[in-house]
Design a protein that fits this description.
By secondary structure, this protein is an alpha/beta fold. The protein has a 9-stranded mixed sheet with strand order 3-2-1-4-5-6-10-8-11, with helices on both faces. It has a two-stranded parallel ribbon with strand order 7-9. It is globular. It has one domain: NAD(P)-binding Rossmann-like Domain (Rossmann fold), CATH 3.40.50.720. The protein binds NADP nicotinamide-adenine-dinucleotide phosphate (NAP). The site of NADP nicotinamide-adenine-dinucleotide phosphate has 25 residues, from helix 1, helix 4 and strand 7.
Length: 228
């Protein structure tokens, strides 16, 4: 991705999304943040992002369509969260994500990076509690792969608020069971991986990511080198 492109971030007020916004701004990109709570959007605007109001569950798609117009890339970091029910899993993690993909296609965006989840390729192999969420992620990832956009799907393990380490391990499409160890990664490191994935000249790459011992830039460059 060229410097100074316009990136639309979904979930920009969330734990990972906020860090991605900061990272993209620091890298010289323009950021448009799609935000449902204006109070939460204010700090992002202060830091230099363009904040546009909208909700992924709004039956009227006008706000989403307008927000996506003219963007070069889309990053999806939104999520229904653990405190909502399966209805929101369906409406945000699946249908909301699909709507953002459709909007990106319609707007002629160049690329899309999806923040998915580890184990999204095998939802029914997971716990009963996690299966609906992973099924939603799985389906959204498949829609993105068929969209015609240039895309990467980032599948992290459990997210923490630990400080950045810039050290990760990746597996395409999965990290081997024996190598998983501690299945966590900080949101800061995930934001760095998302930013590097947006900047990579690659498409068609789905990978799991955990904290590890390889610099983010090196790990993502290797993934990009093996891409379509
Ligand atoms: N938590 C984990 O361990 C884990 C593991 C793997 C993958 N993930 C995935 O990683 C991503 C980021 O997770 P996170 O924990 O950093 O996120 P988070 O802090 O839970 O933030 C979620 C974001 O989504 C936004 N959002 C929720 N519903 C929305 C709606 N209807 N319309 C528009 N925006 C909406 C929230 O807005 P508000 O600020 O207004 O609420 C917030 O900005 C998610 O896709 C999640 O599924 C999480």
């Amino acid at each position: 991705m060229d410097p100074h492109v316009l990136v639309l971030v979904h979930g920009a007020t969330g734990g990972t999304g906020r860090l991605l916004v900061d990272r993209l701004l620091a890298d010289g990109h323009q950021v448009r943040a799609f935000v449902r709570d204006p109070d939460k959007g204010a700090p992002l605007a202060k830091r230099g992002a363009e904040v546009v109001p909208g909700d992924l569950t709004d039956p009227d798609a006008t706000a989403l369509t307008d927000a996506t117009r003219g963007v070069d890339a889309v990053a999806f970091c939104a999520g229904s969260g653990a405190s909502t029910g399966k209805d929101m899993t369906l409406l945000v993690d699946l249908h909301g994500a699909v709507r953002t993909i459709d909007a990106a296609v319609e707007a002629g965006a160049d690329r899309y990076v999806m923040l998915s989840s580890m184990a999204a390729d095998d939802p029914l192999g997971s716990s009963e509690a996690m299966a609906p969420y992973l099924a939603a992620k799985h389906a959204a990832d498949r829609v993105l792969a068929a969209s015609g956009l240039r895309w990467m799907v980032v599948r992290p393990g459990a997210l923490t608020d630990d400080p950045p380490t810039d050290q990760v391990r990746t597996g395409t499409p999965r990290i081997a069971r024996a190598e998983r160890g501690d299945r966590s990664i900080s949101r800061a490191d995930v934001a760095a991986v998302m930013a590097a994935s947006l900047e990579a000249d690659a498409t068609g790459v789905t990978f799991e990511v955990l904290s590890g011992d390889r610099p983010v830039a090196e790990a993502v460059a290797d993934l990009a080198a093996g891409s379509a």
